[in-house]
């Protein structure tokens, strides 16, 4: 799972008292919702209500609105207005003032990719629903991630991403023994031979890989490897390799001062001109322009 990359966008704490509800609009990344305590219901994209109970984990697809409700009191549940939403050190807290919450939920909005190529939840079309147990300690990992953000220590981003990665890994492990449809997104993890070859591509994108060498790494014939790889990724091995090489080049351009020729060699290109053409096709700009723009953006963020 070293190739699993997590980018944490935001963490949110949702506290809904009896007789209240909260509504969220569309967010362009998936969200992990873990119900720490309490019972209620969640409706995703105006669909049927899903009962909420302690230790229930739900992944809401990108760009999908949802609503959480808790019964109680007279009349329909009252909406917790956005005037009651507060921000503190990167954490959004949604709560009704002076009310004891029934539902206590921690949400992490994130992007997850495997080897920078396979977006695990980016194309999700229906929610993922899994019931965990206290022994799985998902709640502790989320609380620790929130504490990291609040303390704002050195390396907070890496630590928060690492904690959320542990949760996604727990979900991935669960997927290997689940029959639910969403687990198809993790089919690569169940194919150990293809995973072996893909891990080699991720670890050494600039190496002189070929379909034949990757098939040998997987312990498969060329035709069997091509068929199984393409079935999992929806693309050929060489197409995925080009993506990995471009991502490697983008990282080198934004985090090092190495010359363009060296960046090209590190990405597996002996010719600078062929590298520039490939990079321009992937990122719609020349490598030097990409580096300059990234540097200007980072400078603005440091101000």
Structure description:
It is a single chain. The protein has 303 residues and is α+β, with helices and mostly antiparallel strands. It contains ten helices and 13 strands. The strands form two sheets. Strands 1, 3, 6, 9, 10, 11, 12 and 13 form an eight-stranded mixed beta sheet that branches. The longest helix has 20 residues, at 156-175. The model has no long low-confidence stretch (mean pLDDT 83). InterPro entries: Homeodomain-like_sf (IPR009057), HTH_AraC (IPR018060). Keywords: Transcription, Transcription regulation. This is Helix-turn-helix transcriptional regulator.
What features would you highlight for this structure?
single chain; 303 residues; alpha+beta; 8-stranded mixed β-sheet; 5-stranded mixed β-sheet; 10 helices; elongated
Mean pLDDT: 83
Strand segment count? 13
Poorly predicted ranges: none
Oligomer: single chain
| Topology order in helix (H) and strand (E) letters | EEEEEEEEEEEEEHHHHHHHHHH
Residue share in β-strands: 15-25%
Head-to-tail CA distance between termini: 36 Å
**Coarse shape:** elongated
The level of helicity is 40-55%
| Cα radius of gyration in angstroms | 22 Å
List the helices and strands and how they pair.
Elements: E1 4-17, E2 20-24, E3 31-37, E4 40-44, E5 50-52, E6 56-60, E7 66-70, E8 78-79, E9 85-88, E10 91-95, E11 101-114, E12 118-119, E13 128-131, H1 138-151, H2 156-175, H3 187-190, H4 192-203, H5 211-218, H6 222-233, H7 237-255, H8 260-266, H9 272-283, H10 287-302
Parallel strand pairs: 1-10, 2-8
Antiparallel strand pairs: 1-11, 2-7, 3-6, 3-11, 4-5, 4-7, 6-13, 9-10, 11-12
